[in-house]
Amino acid sequence: MSKNNWLVVAHRAGARIFCHGDTPHSLECVARFEHPQAHLHEREFGSDRPGRATDSSRSGRHAMTNETPASETSVRMFAERIADYLETARLEHRLERLALVAEPHMLGLLRAALTTGTAAIVSASLDKDLVHVADGDLASWLQDARFWI
Question: Is the pTM of this model over 0.70?
Fold first, then answer.
């Protein structure tokens, strides 16, 4: 198997990227990403109370709200960080084929963050959170699931 075939296993708090190992059905870790902010509560991202604004009609003041919670923005930026790494690897010809495994929401964020060129080389995806699967057990788990390996 080619070492240019990569597997991304991600969730909102971290990601691991693997390539095929030297022996059949083995994986080697290429990179690890941590996102400890995923464990923070929404109130820990900013102030406790939203800012205040005056209506243009001057009829009163009201609280300003964010359209997107800070925790969601943080996870989206984490997905973009992973996508940037993958894009760089693709442009450097270290990545030719890609498989994605992530819990459903993170999988959607990863897909949205990929460039057109990187999205075109995604050969498989699985919406499953495999954070609990150890690096050494991942290849056999994916083989049992008839996924990618």
Answer: yes
